[in-house]
Amino acid sequence: MNIPSRHRFALFRLGAYLRLRLAQTPIRQDDVMYIIDRDQSAFESYSIAAWSFVMTACYLSDFVTPFLAPLLAALAFHVPICVVGLLRKNKNNIRLTSIIAMSLLAFAAAMYATSTSWLRFVAWQFFAFVALNALAAIIVFSLRGSIEKLEAAFAQ
Amino acid sequence: MTWFRRFLVNGVFWRQLLRFAVLNVPLWVEPIVEAFWTLFFLLWGPGRRGVMRNLTAILPGSSSLANFFRAYRVFWNFAWTITDNMRFRELRVSPDWEFIGREYYEQLQSQPGGAIILTAHMGSYDLGAHLFAEKSGRQIVMIRAPEIDSQTRAFEESHASRTAADLKIDFNTRASDLALDLLHALQRGEIVAIQGDRVTPGISALPATLFGKPMQVPAGPFALSMAARVPIYPLFIMRRGRRRYRIVTAKPFEVTRTRDRAAAFEEAVKQWTAELEQVVREAWFQWFTFQPFSEELR
Fold first, then answer.
1. Does B148 touch chain A (CB under 8 A)?
2. Closest residue of chain A to B37, computed from CA coordinates
3. Given B31, B91, B95, which is nearest A35 (Cβ)?
4. Which of A10, B79, B251, B275 is the most exposed place for a label (fewest CB within 10 A)?
5. How many domains does chain A have?
């Protein structure tokens, strides 16, 4: 059940829409109960997590030994989470920490994009993904009526 | 040194940290954070050894090295499960559900009188109970082992008060009073959910065999079934992936009143352990029993 509404990033929403169009016939599933939530896709969540983790580890390998970089990358993700969480206690800060973490990735990409090291390729693929996602967002927006109809047909 | 107690395994710090994470971790960062913190579970020696010893009985012939990595898988699933449970409590975000044995699940929902759900420390039994209470609209009483740490108990009880109106959480601390309360609840047609795979100290137990090892199961659910003449539904909740759970409902059985009470209990315990064994064998990575389940494994 990979309907677009169960994805957050436009690229994944577009992918889900295309898969749904190719599926043509809805499959009847009686023994399941699906939740419509933008963060429900496991594939999307694990893909973005792996992608951002590898990128961060790559950037950190510029400062520390490559063996230590993955551990530091995991710790680095905790920094914006802890700072925001401690400044805004007992509040739902998920959106804010998400924006800050993605902005930090963008900042790191901007730093390395003009460098001469191999890390410029890591930085440019980040910008390529951002550009692709922006393009997908435009397509998804223009297809919103069709997506809604298709989802309604499949979700019945 | 009481401040230090909050950082012990059963301390309140870890519950507060989990709540903090649920309110602050972006969902696309969550797998990284879960993987990182699951490593800390492996540092918990008694828990890790408990899981590894249980695995030697569940998977005969398995090596210690393989069981070490399997223990990580158990802790990984446990970390996701407690996160999903906390997320539901704090943000009311529910996972996807699959049903196996749906006919029995529906039978349970439409059961005219009371019934006992006998479950195990698998998946998110809290989430499952919430789902059942919300969807069926029936009063459900969930029995849990009390938290050892007083601060953790206070934390859990303050959160329990925020649960669905149809869900009541009780702690099996005062055995005799609780038994009477539960009997009355069953007679009123309510559903009582009890975990039947672990015995809390001070609670009466029945002998059983699981994976060929002697163990004990709580006597309460079987005695209640006999006294209130209500069926027992074995029901298991398993995590199938990110935000996806499966509810397995097995065929109900009753503990019939006969002259030979011991034989009736023995028969019922056999049925229960057969269901439990089958489910745990298939989903050993979901069985969150961190102490050896049998004295033989200690």
1. no
2. A74
3. B95
4. B251
5. 1
Residue A45 is assigned to a structural domain of this protein: yes
Question: Where do the structural domains in chain B lie, given as residue ranges?
Answer: 2-297
Is A125 within the bounds of a domain?
yes
Q: How far is B87 from chain A (nearest CA, A)?
A: 11
CATH, domain B2-297, list 1.25.40, 2.40.160, 3.40.1130, 3.40.50: 3.40.1130
- Residue A6 gets which letter from DSSP? G
- How wide is the angle at C-alpha B259 spanned by C-alphas B256 and B261, nearest 5°? 60
- Region of poorest pLDDT, from B81-85, B95-99, B179-183: B179-183
CB atoms within 10 A of CB B289: 17
What residues of chain A lie within 8 A of the CB of B136, using their CB? none
Domain that residue A138 falls in: 36-152
Point out which residues pair with B207 in neighbouring strands.
B216
Q: pLDDT tens-digit profile of A51-71?
A: 999 999 999 999 999 999 999
Interchain contact B243–A (C-beta under 8 A): yes
Name the residue facing A32 among B25, B33, B96 (closest C-beta): B96
**String of b and e for B104-128 (b: at least 16 CB within 10 Å)?**
bbebbeebeebbbbbbbbbbbbbbb
pTM given for the model:
0.90
Answer whether A33 sits within 8 Å of B96, measured CB to CB: yes
Query: Is residue A76 included in any domain, yes or no?
Result: yes
